[in-house]
Amino acid sequence: MVALTHIEAKIQEFLRDLDAPLVLEMSQNLQSGKMLRSKLALHIAGETQECIHLCAIIEMIQSASLLHDDVIDSAQTRRSKPSINALFGDKNAIMLGDIFYAKSFAELMYFQDSHPMIPKIIADAVATLAIGELEDVALSSAFNANEAQYLTMIEHKTAALIEATAYAAAHLAGKDEEDAKKFRIYGRNLGIAFQIIDDVLDIVSDSQTLGKNALSDFKEGKTTLPYLYLYHALDGDGQRRLKDSFKKDLTPQEQQWILTQLKDKQALVESVKLARHLGNLGIEAIAHQSCDKLIEIMKEMIEREF
Predict the structure, then answer these.
(1) Is 258 helix (H, G, I), strand (E, B) or coil?
(2) Cα–Cα distance between 235 and 252 in angstroms, integer?
(3) What does the angle CA 276 – CA 278 – CA 279 come to, to the nearest 5 degrees?
């Protein structure tokens, strides 16, 4: 998609505006992702200059959130490469994230006259995303057995910006509020399903594919959905054993016990089932919006084999 190159060029333009060589130097070490949010916006609103501007803002916000996330998690890698905090230290990573947030908010003023809803949609999503990060930190302090709390947290932390992207792009495309809300539902469900699938991949993928060790979420203090389903399927002894393994370096035997139980108790199957259910609800929301590419994106994510 040629427009993705234009988005990257627009981000560089934003950064050059700051006239800060150190920002450019650190930014060159950021690892670029799949730009899912930009692809959604482009499929909804088209490859216009306005949409490219919006996508550049959203990608910078996403980068800022990951910069802060890596510091919070003490992550030394990002997409199999050294993280910014590993290369330049936590203080510089935090400040670079702050710079990205601030520049993104400044560039949102581009839409204040033509599409005044867009700055509010994106700004609200950033606040929600930060709330989700707070919730994630709180839930990571101890083993969490509450599914509702976990789903609320990922709706805030992961889905909020995807939801806002689809919603803002629908406004940019000239959709009325009723139709724009359908894209908002799609984006929210895509975001939640995306995180659930990522939870599953943390367990079933090998370290080379994933870019981190299998079961790393559990070791880092994240009781993701498969572990929640497993916990409630175990007897009392099994529940105690699982909780005793939380946030610890697992022996090969302990790791194998968890993997076996996750399979035997259908915890992975149930997680994927929920992701597919949410994904299909998202598809239903935009079924009459002539957005085959969005339906394809959702299906590619939820219909893969595990």
Answers:
(1) helix
(2) 22
(3) 60
CB atoms within 10 A of CB 151: 18
Nearest to 232 by CA among 148, 132, 135: 148
**Largest alpha-carbon pair distance within the chain?**
61
Rounded-to-integer distance, Cα 57 and Cα 278, Å: 27
Read off the pLDDT of each residue in 296-301 and give the average, rounded to a whole number.
96
* Confidence band, pLDDT 50/70/90 cuts, at residue 211: very low
Beta strand segments in the chain, E:
77-78, 81-82
Residue 231 has pLDDT above 70, yes or no: yes
State the DSSP string of 78-121.
Answer: ETTEE-HHHHH-HHHHHHHHHHHHHHHHHHHGGGTTT-THHHHH
Whether the CA torsion 61, 65, 68, 70 is positive or negative: it is negative
Q: Distance (Å, rounded) from C-alpha 265 to C-alpha 259? A: 10
35 and 63 Cβ atoms separated by less than 8 Å: no
